[in-house]
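Supplementary notes for students who missed Thursday's class. We covered one full example, reproduced here. Read the sequence, then the structure, then the short commentary at the end.
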Amino acid sequence: MAYGVPWTADEEALLRKLVAEGLTIRQLGVRLGRTHNSVQRHLMAMRLRTQGKARGGRTEGGKFAKTGPTKREQAHRAGPVTLPPLASLQDVD
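Structure (token representation):
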């Protein structure tokens, strides 16, 4: 892996082409012989985006998109407690 090596014009052209093909940052790094962080920083500097997963963010209306169930919905899905009664408590008079 290259560390601290400047990007060449050929590498930048290949990076643009591979981003257009939809490769992930890790795949880009492997193809270019660069680290994940190097590719990520260079994509930001070039103002390019990969087609990775959407992780929330603001929608067109300006509100944040819902990314998953709320804590209340998670607790509701857990269901009631289904443990059997303790045998030691049944014999108590």
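Commentary. The helical segments are 9-21, 25-32, 36-46, 71-78, 87-90. The mean pLDDT is 77. If anything here is unclear, bring it to office hours.
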